């Protein structure tokens, strides 16, 4: 006997009384009991109007849904309120310290959203293209800030930010991964267990880091005219490394691939490829605007607050550019996935 005789069948009515269908039907009933405003603004899994026959309503509902999913993707996104305030501060011409501070905190959540959108697209494109996309956009924020700084003539800031980013990834991030991962996986007796990682990944990345370090030192020690040729060689080597990792010798990175597959199994894509690409474009534009005001305030900030450009480049800008990657590496280390943690930290440095 049907326990709900008055229930009207619709497109959301489950065909079979299995556990998943019962759960879905319970979610629908729960949404119907909640106020419309709550479902519209605070439910990241559903937005009223997505199934509407009216194109305008359906489009607005889809935009609202993508916005909710993006905003609720990370706790640090509460700092997104700093984005419009930082842009207004830079446009109106507030004090250099205020403009720098506001845009500094504005870029941090934008970097997290950029990472989220990149991951969503990568899940749709498969392992090879997804890995290439993550490698390309992993340092997008730093790349944008560096380009803006180069246009503004802040060569010292760009040089120190490159060095600071490498040091923060290799020392701070890797150190936190090893330390926190070891604390969380101490074994039953508390005496400690070993967290394993692929020797092939470690050897390959260490070799590339050594080669990159030598390539950065030689032009400065011998002749700066070698810098452009060195840059081209490094770029070619990085492309070959991607081909080595994703195509020709992907079997050497099986452990890292298995960890990535486990993470994908735990979390399914929450945005479509087109929606994630739209988020990527919007966030890139906002990062460019905030970076413009942040870099533009550096000279006045150095004069007024007695802060050196080396400190800004070595410490502050790497924190902004790598905040999302730092959190990701530590989280996967806490899950005992050290291959993936090393891939995030050392891959960013490379």
TrEMBL record:
Keyword Membrane carried by entry: yes
Residue span(s) of domain Sodium/calcium exchanger membrane region: 98-246, 276-350
GO MF terms, alphabetically ordered: calcium:proton antiporter activity
InterPro entries: CaH_exchang, CAX-like, NaCa_Exmemb, NCX_ion-bd_dom_sf
Gene Ontology biological process terms, A to Z: intracellular calcium ion homeostasis
Spans through the membrane: 75-94, 100-118, 130-150, 162-184, 196-218, 224-244, 271-295, 310-334
Single GO cellular component term: fungal-type vacuole membrane
Membrane topology: Multi-pass membrane protein
Pfam (any one): Na_Ca_ex
Coiled-coil stretches: none
Identification of the protein by name: Vacuolar calcium ion transporter
Keywords of this entry: Antiport, Calcium, Calcium transport, Ion transport, Membrane, Transmembrane, Transmembrane helix, Transport, Vacuole
Known function: Has a role in promoting intracellular calcium ion sequestration via the exchange of calcium ions for hydrogen ions across the vacuolar membrane. Involved also in manganese ion homeostasis via its uptake into the vacuole.
Predominant cellular place of this UniProt entry's protein: membrane
Subcellular location as annotated: Endomembrane system; Vacuole membrane
